[in-house]
Amino acid sequence: MTNEDRELVELFAGLDTPGVSDALDKLGLGGQCFDVMPLANYAGTVVGPAFTVKYVSAANPPGTVGDFTDDVAEGDMVVIDNGGRTDCTVWGDIMTQYAGARRFAATVIDGVCRDVSKALGDGYPLFTRGRFMRTGKDRVEVGAVNDVVSIGQARVVPRDIVVADANGVVIVPRGRAREVAEVARKIEAVETKIREAIAAGQTLKQAREALGYHLLQRKA
Question: To the nearest whole number, what is the mean pLDDT of the chain?
């Protein structure tokens, strides 16, 4: 990763996808990846710049399905657009092993994965539409690397900031990352005060009204 990549990733330290999603709503931005779910209930949040891959239906003879991994940098989020296909996988245990050894941050797939025991055992974060055993070899091939892709209806430009946790995945446009992180922290600060007020004996309605909860995610 570049120094700028690290700086942008650090902006989201301590934040989670609900807070970032609320900030995107507040700013009128999209970025929530529909139907892309965590493989496990991960305890933390992973953040990284997007390394994007687009799969297409295989030609005859078919092309390759996974050699792009040599170009992924430590800390990158591999973001794979397989068009939401659930009939064949584009990620398995060999790629999980390689990703762990090279210290990729995580993998996000608009599609399915397999060999999930390896990812679960290693604690490698995967976010997908599900799991299925059938190989993608001879069915799909890499069509483009580091091009604009779509993940769960969210547009992903290479090096956008990806935030993922047990709640799902959100994409933050790189040029708006500082703004999104700042708004997310402001929202989280208000919600923390609401929790503290409830703990001190206020009703939920009182705490929310006093701190403007219903306006937090509304566009300015």
Answer: 92
Structure tokens at 204: 């939920």
Q: Is the pLDDT of residue 206 over 70?
A: no
Tokens for 57?
């239906």
Q: How far apart (Å, rounded) are the C-alpha atoms in residues 147 and 157?
A: 7
Query: Please, which residues have CB within 8 angstroms of residue 111's CB and are 6 or more apart in sequence?
Result: 55, 80, 81, 82, 83, 84, 85, 86, 88, 89, 90, 128, 129
* Contacts (Cβ under 8 Å, ≥6 apart) of 191: 19, 213, 216
State whether residue 15 is helix, strand or coil. Answer: coil
Structure tokens at 126: 């995967």
Q: What is the dihedral of CA 117, 73, 171, 208, to 10 degrees?
A: 80
pTM attached to this predicted model: 0.91
Written as one string, the DSSP assignment of 172-199 is E-GGGHHHHHHHHHHHHHHHHHHHHHHH
Q: What is the 3-state secondary structure (H, E, C) of 75-119?
A: CCEEEEEEEEEEEEECCCHHHHHHHHHCCCCEEEEEEEECCHHHH
Query: How confident is the model over 99-150, as pLDDT tens digits?
Result: 999 999 999 999 999 999 999 999 999 999 999 999 999 999 999 999 999 9
Domains of the chain (ranges, CATH numbers): 3-175 (3.50.30.40), 181-215 (no CATH)
